[in-house]
Amino acid sequence: MLLYIVRHGIAIDREDPKCPSDPERYLTPEGLRRTREVAKKLAKLIGPPKAFISSPYVRAVQTAEIFADALGISKTKIEKTEGLLPGAEPSAFFRELSRKKSVESVICFGHAPQLDELISFGLGVKKDITELKKAGVACLDVTRVNPPAGKLVWLMTPRTVRKISKGK
Predict the structure, then answer these.
(1) Which helix (H) or strand (E) holds 128?
(2) Which domain, by its residues, includes 47?
(3) Residue 10 domain flag
C-alpha cells in the first residue's frame, strides 16, 4: 500500500487575537494558495488514492478538500478519524488502516509532530526521522500494516514541489 502523508497548510497563528479554538483553526489565504499549488503539482505525479482520511480539525479537512479537488475526488469521500488528531497514537491509525488492506493507496491529512511520529512508526523506527513542513507530503510504501513495516519512498517540501515544477 502506498501511504501519502500530508501536513495541513499554513493556518491562522495561535497568537492572533482572532484565532479560534485549536480544532477550529483554519488555513490563511497564503495557506490556501500554497496548499492548492502543492496539490495541483502532486496530482500530476500520483494517481488518485483510493482512500482519503483526515483529522477532523478544520485546517486538516480544508487541506484534504484542496487535495480532493486537485485529484478529482469528491469531497464526500473524505473520511475523518481521531487517529490523526494531534497527540494520537500512531498505532491507532495503523489499526484503522488494517481494515483497508485491499486498498492500494491512501492519503491522510493531519498535524505535526504527530505525522512525523506516524512516519517513524510506519517505518519501524523509534525516533522521529522527518519534520514535515506545512503542506509537505511524504510517501511510504507499507508492505505490512499491522504491525507496520514499510519504507520511505520520498518526502517533499512545498519549496521542492515549486522547484520541480519550474524545472530547477
Answers:
(1) none
(2) 2-155
(3) yes
- On whether residue 160 sits in a domain, the answer given is no
What type of residue is 107? I
Three-state secondary-structure class, residue 78 = strand
CA-CA-CA-CA torsion sign (110, 14, 27, 76): positive
From the centroid of its chain, how far is CA 77?
Answer: 15
Q: Which amino acid is at 33?
A: R
CA distance 86 to 56: 10
pLDDT at 167: 56
Give residue 100's pLDDT band: very low, low, confident or very high (50, 70, 90).
confident
List the CATH number of the domain containing 107. 3.40.50.1240
Cell 500500500 belongs to which residue? 1
Residue 60 lies in a domain: yes
pLDDT at 102 over 90: no
